[in-house]
Structure formats: C-alpha cells, structure tokens
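Sequence only, no structure available. Ideas?
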Amino acid sequence: MTKRRFLPTSLSVRLIAAVSFGALLAACAGDLPAGFGDEEPGEGGSGPGTTTSSSTTGGGGEGGTGSGGEGGGAVQQATYAIAVNVPTPDMELRTEQDVDVTITPNGFVGPVTLAVSGLSPDDMTGTFDTTTVNLDGSTTVMATLTLKTLSISTAGPQSGMVTATSEAGVKEAPVSITIIPQITITIPPNVATKLNTTDSFGAFPTVIKALPNLSAQNPIRVRFYNSDGVPREIHADNPNQGFAHTGAAIQPGQFDAQERNVNAAGTYSFYMHGVNQGTTIQGQIKVE
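Reply:
I predicted one. Tokens follow.
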C-alpha cells in the first residue's frame, strides 16, 4: 500500500499565494483576456456622469447628479399692475369724464408716477388727481384721471395711454376715446337771477367745429338740460337749420324733448323764455 504524504499547512498557504501572485504578474504582462481591467481609475460606482450649465459631476452615488438641492427655487421679482375702469369712453363736446386708474402691487414697495400721453392738446386734456402714488407691496391704490373735451374739439377717435413708472418698470393701460358731435347746454340753477347776462350757458358764443360732412344726415346735436328747480323754456329761431323753438317747458332735472340737430355752419342765438318777459338771458352757438 502506497502511503500519501501531505504538505504541512503553512507550506500549502505559501504555494497558493505564490500562484495568485503569478497570475497578477501575468495580467501585468498582458496575458489576461482582452477587456479585463480596462476600467479607468477614479470612477466610482456604476452611475453615469451628468453635465450641467455650471459643472460636470462624476458618476457614483445617486447624489452625484443633484442640481444644487431642492427647495431653493427662483426668487419672484416684486412688480405691480395698472388697469382703467373705462377703457373706451364716448364723450360729448365740452364735457368731462372721470376714469379710475387702479394700481395693484405684487410685492413692490415704493413710489409710482402716473402720466397720460397721446391725446391731441387741441381736442382734449387729461389730468390726474395725484401724479404719484406710494405702494406698500400689497394694498391696491386708486387714482382718478379726468378727461376733458372742448366745444371746438374735433369729433372722432382719440388714442391715449396711461403710463405708470417706477423702479419696478413701466406699466401701460390704453384709453380709446370717441368724441361724438354732440353738446349739452345746461340751464343753471336760479337762472331767473341772471338777468342781462350772456354767460349763463357758457361761453358767448360757444364755438363748435363744423363736421367735414355736416348735413341733416350727419348733424351736430345740441341738447338742453334744466338744472333749475322750476320748468324752463328755450326760445330759438332756426328750424330750417335744425335749431328750432321748443314750444314746451323743460322739466327740472330733465333734457328738452325737442331735438336740435344743427345741419349747417352758422350762428344760432337763443334765450330764456318767460323770464322778465324779454331776451335778457341770452346764449349763442357758432358752428364754423
């Protein structure tokens, strides 16, 4: 019987280490299969690299691809807005129209300057009750823009722009006005006390610009309104030109039932009927 001989344990460990070391030397000499050990040093884990606008991050743990942490968010810029309550008013000749301008802050704190532009100075004006408002960041503020036409304003459209200016920028709100060929003449309160006057109804004469195509089909409408406390009657003498006599009293707080549609250029005189039995309270319209 052949007896088997075993190496001492310490010698076996040495042989195994020697074999492993030989394999490592073979790898260094290029004896290992292709592709083995191709991984470049410095790459950790299996995560892919991520490129951002500011830097490139290496692969590895999932946190390596973060964009700076959640919850930061963009800071909202403080601003404000403006609006008008009557963006397209129709206006008579020689009249006024108030437009409310609302300034609403969205975080902005500071002064805002108001202005209006684009209006023809020969036809109308626009003024604010205040040209500067101060915002506290959250409270809505109101301002009033008063538009005013003249008796001699040109009938037709007017395009205005309300502008608000501040450190937070410029905001705009358009106002498109239509001047209509119509005028209201008011009988004033206590008109009977205004004997021997020519200015009780406004300027004497009240000049109105004739329309380019003034005619019976395209007239200038003249209305009388009674602000006196008693019925009043207006005397006029130009029925062929559309400026006829009333023939009836105008009740307090009402317009004359008589429509006066002036269809030609010329001078139209009128006076208060039934006061001192004469023509002492006079008015005049001149269309030219």
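The longest strand covers residues 169-187.
Hope that gets you unstuck.
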